[in-house]
From TrEMBL:
Similarity comment: Belongs to the DprA/Smf family.
Protein name: DNA-processing protein DprA
The organism's place on the tree of life at top rank: Bacteria
Xref: PANTHER family: PROTEIN SMF
Organism: Geodermatophilus arenarius
SUPFAM superfamilies named among the record's database cross-references: MCP/YpsA-like (SSF102405)
Pfam families attached to this UniProt entry: DNA_processg_A
Alphabetized Gene3D superfamilies for the sequence: 3.40.50.450
Length: 418
């Protein structure tokens, strides 16, 4: 049922500024709340029209039946309904709020790539499928205390297969924890497998993490993760959705939701992905938005890593291989400030030897000591040159003087034999 105050709120919004002290006026917020329930997100044509005329004028035109035909077709019979005030009150009861572009809290910079993609998409006809369109949200329902914009300013998406392996879950949890320890927010979809492992890793590090849902923020989907979602909200994280409170997790909404995960973050890490997967789709959206695409390799025999390896093989994907959080941060962080330390490699006594020293060392027998002249003959050098490098090899415990000649030093004992 329509609240009679809706028209008054819309009228007031037209008469004054869109925001006061960085907070949208009630009429603007209510108009955008109405749009989140009336129109399924992901339509380039609808977003452009709303952006052009403004949310208040758009709502009034849709309710009066004077909106463009394409916009009316997307809304349908929902134009006659109004649950905007009820949605805002329901959100308030569960500790949520509606964040709109007129708010200072709006993540304008992270979502700018979606705005650019929308304006460069011709007339929008080439992206009729909402599940693949790159378009900003008209508003975002947010549950949790921290402001949205600073929470996602330094964020990375960690996504992957629902039917994950123990290897994938271990890697995702490690990435979540290590990214959290470095001050980065992990963003994912809260699903089974890789998603929830990454969220749990961030929680274990005491870091905020963000779940982008395909349903209302007052619903836990999957239901088995309700306790994890509560821990996220109470631990300084956020639940985010384009759909109003009470909205059901319809299948197509998961595909639409993926662009928000890619858009809010600086890059997307795919930990595990089957040949056809939502994680691959998220990665391709990230690449289309100019964001980093990072891939964790897996066993070549694992079906859950086929999608990862395909991304690495595709030149157009621009995917980069990563194996730890430091490499992820180096890829998505500030140039020169977030460099990953080189991987530690095992060191051996032979490391750093000159070519001559290596040749003399290779000439040494294992058991019987031989003279420097004999070593020089085998190594192909002058006896004086062999004599010059032998003391250094002895100090390094590589050769041993037997009293009658030189031989290889025996390996150090690691313990008593049995």
């Amino acid at each position: 049922m329509t609240d009679p105050a809706l028209e008054e709120d819309l009228e007031d919004a037209l008469a004054g500024p869109a925001a006061v002290d960085g907070v949208a006026v009630p009429g603007i917020r209510r108009a955008r709340a109405w749009l989140t329930r009336a129109a399924e997100p992901g339509s380039v044509a609808l977003w452009r029209w709303v952006d052009d005329v403004g949310p208040v004028a758009a709502v009034r035109a849709l309710r009066a039946g004077t909106a463009p035909e394409r916009a009316r077709a997307l809304v349908g019979v929902r134009a006659e309904q109004d649950a905007s005030l009820a949605d805002l009150r329901r959100a308030e009861r569960c500790g949520a709020r509606l964040v709109v572009p007129e708010d200072d809290e709006w993540p304008a910079l992270p979502l700018h790539a979606l705005t650019v993609a929308t304006h460069t998409d011709g007339d929008g006809e080439g992206r009729r499928d909402r599940t693949t369109a790159l378009v900003p949200p008209v508003a975002l329902w947010v549950r949790g205390d921290p402001p949205l914009e600073p929470t996602v300013d330094r964020s990375v998406a960690v996504v992957g297969a629902r039917a994950s392996t123990a290897y994938g879950e271990h890697v995702a949890a490690d990435l979540g924890a290590q990214l959290g320890e470095r001050g980065w927010t992990v963003v994912s979809g809260g699903a089974y497998g890789i998603d929830v492992a990454a969220h749990r890793g961030a929680l274990a590090a005491g870091a905020p993490t963000v779940v982008v849902l395909a349903c209302g923020v007052d619903r836990a989907y999957p239901a088995a993760h309700s306790a994890v979602f509560e821990r996220i909200v109470s631990g300084g994280g956020l639940l985010v959705s384009e759909w109003p409170p009470g909205a059901a997790p319809h299948r197509h909404r998961f595909l639409v939701r993926n662009r928000i995960i890619a858009g809010l973050t600086r890059g997307t890490v795919v930990v595990e992905a089957a040949a056809r997967s939502g994680a691959q789709a998220t990665a391709r959206r990230a690449r289309a938005l100019g964001k980093e695409v990072l891939v964790v390799p897996g066993p070549v025999t694992s079906a859950m890593s086929v999608g990862c390896h395909e991304l690495l093989r595709e030149q157009e994907s621009g995917a980069r291989l990563v194996s730890n959080a430091a490499q992820v941060v180096e890829a998505v962080g500030s140039l020169g400030d977030d460099l990953a330390a080189p991987e530690r490699r095992p060191t051996f006594p032979r490391d750093g030897l000159s070519d001559l020293a290596r040749r003399v060392l290779d000439a040494c027998p294992v058991r019987t000591g031989v003279s420097a002249e004999r070593l020089a003959a085998v190594a192909g050098c002058d006896p004086l040159e062999a004599m010059r490098v032998l003391p250094g090899l002895e100090v390094a415990d590589l050769v041993q003087w037997t009293g009658t000649g030189w031989r290889l030093a025996p390996p150090p004992r690691t313990g008593r034999g049995g």
